[in-house]
């Protein structure tokens, strides 16, 4: 049995399968998931686990090169949560629309659904390489 790190078997396997340039989502509990995209559903009740909790659990386990968020979070808590934990460029697009955040979710490897209820607390991370 594991004694540290990611204990959720599905999430641990998905993280281990990520390669350079792969993208995945950490989402609030309301982001729609497109058909065919795997969802690692960690949500238990509203607010559990928090978006921040999942970011904290992942930050020491991944090499990331960029993040994409909805422009609706610029200057608000979700942007700060990501920037406080990851030293990487963050880009912004509108939440909706043909070139928006929800459209960008198409083609990600998986979505990690949290219990977060803060509006627009969603991020698409793109993986980097540790060398």
Automatic annotation (TrEMBL):
One of its GO terms (molecular function) is monosaccharide binding. The keyword Secreted does not apply. Its EC number is 5.4.99.62. SUPFAM superfamilies: RbsD-like (SSF102546). One of its GO terms (cellular component) is cytosol. Transmembrane segments: none annotated. GO terms for biological process: D-ribose catabolic process. Keywords: Carbohydrate metabolism, Cytoplasm, Isomerase. It catalyses: beta-D-ribopyranose = beta-D-ribofuranose. It is an enzyme of class 5 (isomerase). It comes from the Bacteria. The keyword Ligase does not apply. NCBIfam families: PRK11797.1. This is D-ribose pyranase.
């Amino acid at each position: 049995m594991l004694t540290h790190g990611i204990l959720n078997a599905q999430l641990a396997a998905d993280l281990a399968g990520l390669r350079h340039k792969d993208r995945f989502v950490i989402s609030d509990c309301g982001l729609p998931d497109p058909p065919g995209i795997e969802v690692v559903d960690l949500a238990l009740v509203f607010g559990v686990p928090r978006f921040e909790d999942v970011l904290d659990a992942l930050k020491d386990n991944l090499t990331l090169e960029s993040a994409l968020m909805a422009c609706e979070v610029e200057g608000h808590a979700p942007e700060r949560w990501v920037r406080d934990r990851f030293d990487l460029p963050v880009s912004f697009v509108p939440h909706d629309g043909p070139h928006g955040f929800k459209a960008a979710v198409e083609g990600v490897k998986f979505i990690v659904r949290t219990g977060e209820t803060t509006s627009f607390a969603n991020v698409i991370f793109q993986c980097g390489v540790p060398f």
